[in-house]
Amino acid sequence: MILFAVTALAAFSYSEIGWPELTEEERDPRVTASEAAAQDGLHPIVEDKKEELKDKAAERGIDIVITEDYRSIEEQQALYERGRSADGDIVTNAAGGESYHNYGLAVDFALRSPEGSVVWDIESDFNGSGQADWLEVVDIAKDLGFEWGGDWDHFKDYPHLQMSFGLSIQELKEAAGVQ
């Protein structure tokens, strides 16, 4: 059984992923960088898809827990400073403004076991379907339009789901006035 610690929430800089730049025609017109930068919670589309994800997972007998969603730039910076200029262990390589969480476009999830504990286990099949519950949730999330951190090349962030709407972190930072 592989367990993932909560501290792996965002342990890298999104710029390391190398998201491809999209043309205007390829962008999702539902969300602009300035709109996302103005969020102080989950973007309404992401909120709706998060609830739909929970409902669809429950239909398959999978109980998911959203462990993180919107995180302000200041909260992100405080996490980034852990193990650097503040006490504690390093928990992220994403400074304030470097995470899709900072723009209301990302959530992290975990599973609730039949015993009621929250687990970051990508192999368990609690619902007995023959497929790992974690991967069932990922399949549902992708069908809903989420991108999965487990697909990234440089750092696997298994709990992370985001809807970037074709917007880069750089575009979001510029819209938010973050250096």
From TrEMBL:
GO terms for MF: peptidase activity
Family annotation (Pfam families): Peptidase_M15_4
Phylogenetic lineage: Bacteria, Bacillati, Bacillota, Bacilli, Bacillales
Protein name, entry field: Peptidase M15
UniProt domain Peptidase M15C: residue ranges: 94-163
Alphabetized InterPro entries for the sequence: DD-CPase-like, Peptidase_M15C, Zn_M74/Hedgehog-like
CDD domains: L-Ala-D-Glu_peptidase_like
PANTHER family assigned: D-ALANYL-D-ALANINE CARBOXYPEPTIDASE, PEPTIDOGLYCAN L-ALANYL-D-GLUTAMATE ENDOPEPTIDASE CWLK
